[in-house]
Amino acid sequence: MQKSNGGKTDERFLFHGTSKKHIDAICHQNFDWRICGLNGTVYGKGSYFARDALYSDVYCTEGSCTKTMFQARVLVGEFTVGRSSYVRPPLKDDQNFYDSCVNSSSNPSIFVIFEKQQVYPEYLIEYLDQACARML
């Protein structure tokens, strides 16, 4: 990525909401775009990460009062707006592909990553669902 982007990688701290049943697989094998699509593929068939934890919270599906979310270091590199048909980012010039896809090129809040080498799941966050907290 550094070579094709003139030394730039653009590392960001992003969130990924998930259900508890996927935690072990992510921890042992990282994020795998090949099993994407459980919650949509509007910007491409990859692993989705959000700038805002509140957005990722929606995808923390559980039956209990605790939810889990990853905070990951993600190399987003050079990006472009994604499309649902993408299985990899499109070409940015005659020889190089974009590194990721986003929902908005001017102010991206959703990032789609197609290569697991671009992601390091740094933290696993477990927290109490607000709706459950009100009942306690």
Automatic annotation (TrEMBL):
Q: What class of enzyme is it?
A: transferase
Q: What is its EC number?
A: 2.4.2.-
Q: Where is the PARP catalytic domain?
A: 1-136
**One Gene Ontology molecular-function label:** NAD+ poly-ADP-ribosyltransferase activity
Q: Cellular component per GO?
A: nucleus
Source domain of life: Eukaryota
Q: Where are the transmembrane segments?
A: none
Q: Which UniProt keywords apply?
A: Glycosyltransferase, NAD, Transferase
Show the PROSITE patterns listed in the entry. Answer: PARP_CATALYTIC
Family according to the record: Belongs to the ARTD/PARP family.
| Name of the featured protein | Poly [ADP-ribose] polymerase
Source organism per entry reads: Bambusicola thoracicus (Chinese bamboo-partridge)
